Amino acid sequence: MKILHLNSSLTGENSYSKKEADKYLKGKKYEYINLNKSDLGNITLTTENFHDDSRKEISSKIIDKLFEIDELVINAGLTNFNIPPTLVNFHNLIAVANKLFKFKYNGKGVSEGLLKHLKVTLFLAQGAEKGWYIFSHFDTYLKGIYNFFGAKEINVSIIYGTRVSK
């Protein structure tokens, strides 16, 4: 089984979500990418680079990898009521029509995700207690993205009350 682990936590290698992902992955062989230290998480989509060939080349490589793996493990902490910016940038790289999904122009909101083989496992952390912010459903948002991409299975584990202060 081929596994890719993406760390998008802004609190580093010792983040709550990363520790949970590490426990899950213990004894398994996997490729690890820290999105904070990779072009995959640091290329912000702009009008200047939207059609840039170098961005498209990076995008194609990671999309190819998504079709080669069996499971994608992502750890993320709620960041200003959203997913971390590095994970937003990653999604902007991979959300390419006719590579990761196809539109079916026969109805509103109808599309076909192409990652039908992929299991996605999300380890998430939130500083506030469960239900504290009624609008911070980043787990639902991430499940929606990977449902759209066609993932066959999506598992979510959330740790609440992980306040970070410095």
Task: Pick out its properties.
5-stranded parallel β-sheet; globular; two-stranded antiparallel sheet; 5 helices; alpha/beta; single chain; 166 residues
Structure description:
It is a single chain. With 166 residues, the chain is α/β, with parallel strands linked by helices. The chain is built from five helices and seven strands; from the N terminus they run βαβααβαβββαβ. The protein has a five-stranded parallel β-sheet. A two-stranded antiparallel sheet has the order 4-5. It is globular, with a radius of gyration of 16 Å. It starts with a strand and ends in a 6-residue tail after the last strand.
What's the arrangement of secondary structure elements?
Layout (H helix, E strand, L loop, with lengths): L2 E5 L8 H10 L5 E4 L4 H4 L10 H16 L2 E7 L7 H10 L6 E3 L7 E3 L5 E8 L11 H11 L4 E8 L6
Parallel strand pairs: 1-2, 1-3, 3-6, 6-7
Antiparallel strand pairs: 4-5
In short:
With 166 residues, the chain is α/β, with parallel strands linked by helices. The protein is built from 5 helices and 7 strands.
**Tally of helical runs:** 5
Largest sheet: 5 strands, parallel
Order of helices and strands: EHEHHEHEEEHE
What percentage of residues falls in helices of 4 or more residues? Answer: 25-40%
Q: Work out the number of β strands.
A: 7
* Class derived from helix and strand content: alpha/beta
Distance between the termini: 39 Å
pLDDT averaged residue by residue: 90
Strand order of the largest sheet: 2-1-3-6-7
Which spans of ≥5 residues are poorly predicted at pLDDT below 50?
none
Radius of gyration: 16 Å
Beta-strand share of residues = 15-25%
What would you call the shape?
globular
User: What is the multimeric organization of the chains shown?
Assistant: single chain
